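Comment thread on ticket #2218

A.B. wrote:
> Attaching the input chain for the structure job we discussed in standup.
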Amino acid sequence: MKTMTCKQLGGACDHEFKATTFEQMAAQSRQHGMEMIQKNDEPHQKAMAAMQDLMGSPEAMNAWMEEKRKLFESLPADS
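C.D. wrote:
> Ran it. Output below, let me know if you need it in another format.
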């Protein structure tokens, strides 16, 4: 199990996610982001807009995802 924050995953807050795989971590982050957007949270709306810009370029999006995956993999397991 590893822990990452919303900010580490491109978001806007220090909410923590815990998962054993990067895919699980990314899914939790997406769910949290959608919940915060529904609450009209402005910092998360700005983070989402930045993500949408990245999605306009598949190469940039893939590079970003790979960077986040490497970060996840470099983290120590929770004690």
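A.B. wrote:
> Thanks. Noting for the ticket: The helical segments are 22-38, 42-55, 58-74.
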